[in-house]
Amino acid sequence: MAGVYFHIPFCKKICSYCDFYRTVQLNELPKVVDAMCDEVIRRADYLADKQVRTIYFGGGTPSLLTHRQLEQLLAVVRANFDCSMVEECTLEANPDDLTAEYLAGLRRLGINRLSIGVQSFDDDCLRLMNRRHTAEEAVSAVKRAQCAGFENITIDLIFGVPGFGAAVLNRSIDVALALGVQHISAYLLTIEERTRFGRMVEKGELQEVSDEVAESEYLLIHNRLADAGWEHYEVSNYALPNCRARHNSHYWDGTPYLGIGPAAHSYNGTARQWNVASVAHYLQGAPPECETLGEMELVEEFLMTRLRTADGFSVQEFARRFGDRRVKTLRCAAMGCFDEGLLCEMGDRWYIPPEKLLLSDRVIGSLFDL
Length: 370
Ligand code: SF4
Hints:
This protein is α/β, with parallel strands linked by helices. The protein has helices spanning 29-42, 67-80, 100-109, 123-128, 135-147, 166-179, 196-202, 211-227, 246-253, 279-283, 295-306, 315-322, 324-340, 360-367, and strands at 2-8, 52-59, 88-93, 113-119, 153-159, 183-188, 231-234, 237-239, 257-260, 265-267, 271-274, 289-292, 313-314, 344-346, 349-351. It is 41% helix and 19% strand. Helix 2 (67-80) runs parallel beside helix 3, helix 6 (166-179) runs parallel beside helix 8 and helix 12 (315-322) packs antiparallel against helix 13. Bound molecules: iron/sulfur cluster.
């Protein structure tokens, strides 16, 4: 079982908070698509198991791809992997790219899940973030997608935006719930130096929210969605029953995936690979960098991924993979977290309670002292 990820690092406009590798040189997009097809063929052996269950187009802005380009990429995956059991094929989209005609084409191509980058349903907040759409356009895009037959839609929201407190966030949650989507990802805004927000902070024009505000907004979302019957199953992810993101869940349960395109990452259970974060170097054929994981790195990888989720991990599985001796050491390292209620044990599983998942980095850090 495996996943294939296509990274499309192209955007029409740069968001104020964006620290990802991306470019506005849209003229390079056709060449990159061709190079990505070649990359799939070249790296088809990276995954030992050729049975692909999920395909994901992420970015950047994958909704800048034409139907033909999407078809080209899907065809090369189908030609090189067993795609007879694909359960989920997701495309990340900007609301203003989702015309009725574009959506109908996506359905014909077999895309069965949309991830719509809404971020907020407040126009002032969207303007500050330099997003391409308005709140009304985002609402219309979701409704058009539903009319086109999409029954698995996720939207992204951002919280912790300076100057936009609980009232604005509450209104965005109201709109999201009323829209009838199946999944919501809610990310805490982090301000990085190399971004427009970073420069605004440096000039004193913006002040990052405090940890207390971040935590209270995180809990606001958690409580509102939990009260409405949503499952908070990963630090930033909420789903209606049976609507978890399958592709993203692979990242947290150790399923191998092949990442194609500039700056894409891959993992096959024993090694990580990552492509050069430069369209120019990618087009020149720069090979991916590779890191084979030693036992300690595999332990860290196991804990870091599993403990991001509300399911946590099975101690038996940990013992089977890394030995009973390590379980004892892990238990000693975890004592403080158990005492503070940051870590819980139920049956065979250790997990961080969902309302504390925002602190998962702290918990995971304290367990690394093995
Ligand atoms: S759409 Fe995504 S990748 Fe593009 S600039 Fe905005 S945050 Fe960055």
